[in-house]
Design a protein that fits this description.
There is one protein chain. The protein is built from 4 helices and no strands. It is an all-alpha fold.
Length: 223
């Protein structure tokens, strides 16, 4: 019945319907091909996205690991910072103590320099005193030698006077047995009496005074 109805249609309508059906089939095939291409492209994109996601996850894990590592390093640096702060405080304390010791050492050095200068001045004064004493000793020694020579000359003069007086008194007659105290000769020193115990001649006043002065000077020199 349908065929009979189609036979009743005009030919151009049949051709138009066939053309439309062919065009629809072609469109359907084109769309299917396009859809397949899109599906393939989407599948490729999905694979790429999957790969990218995997890469992103790996990167994320790596970043997380790096973050943990950085956090650990930060914690270590914080601990080192605290340790360095404590070390800095200890160093400042030690430095302060060292400066105190250095100042004390400088004060001790200045005291030592002062004492050394005092000792040097004392040594110079001692050297000057020793030089003065040496000069005084030499002077006293020369004076003593002069006094000794003078005493020896006086002793020789005394011996000469004794000898002269003995020679002069030899031919005189013996003196009377009784001698008045005023006529007695003056007594000499013990050293002169030891030289002439029997006859004690009278010495001149000047010679006697010089001998006494010489004895006093010797006593003062050796006290």
């Amino acid at each position: 019945m349908g065929l009979e109805n189609m036979r009743r249609w005009p030919m151009y309508i049949v051709f138009a319907v066939c053309f439309l059906l062919t065009l629809s089939l072609f469109n359907s095939w084109s769309m299917e091909t396009e859809l397949q291409n899109k599906l393939t492209e989407l599948s490729t994109q999905l694979q790429e996205c999957s790969k990218h996601q995997t890469t992103c996850m790996e990167d994320s894990l790596r970043h997380i690991q790096q973050k943990d590592s950085f956090n650990s390093k930060i914690n270590d640096l914080e601990n080192q910072k605290i340790q360095l702060s404590n070390d800095l405080l200890d160093y400042k304390d030690k430095m302060s103590k060292s400066e105190t010791k250095i100042n004390r050492t400088l004060v001790d050095v200045e005291l030592c320099k002062t004492e050394l200068q005092s000792l040097q001045n004392l040594q110079l004064s001692k050297s000057a005193t020793l030089e003065t004493l040496r000069l005084e000793k030499e002077t006293l020694t020369s004076q003593l030698e002069e006094r000794k020579q003078k005493v020896e000359e006086l002793e020789k003069e005394i011996l000469r006077l004794k000898s002269s007086m003995t020679t002069k008194s030899a031919p005189n007659p013996p003196a009377p047995s009784k001698v008045t105290p005023a006529a007695q000769p003056p007594k000499l020193s013990s050293s002169l009496n030891a030289l002439n115990p029997v006859n004690e001649p009278v010495l001149e006043d000047n010679a006697k005074e010089e001998i006494e002065d010489a004895n006093v000077d010797f006593d003062q020199q050796f006290q």
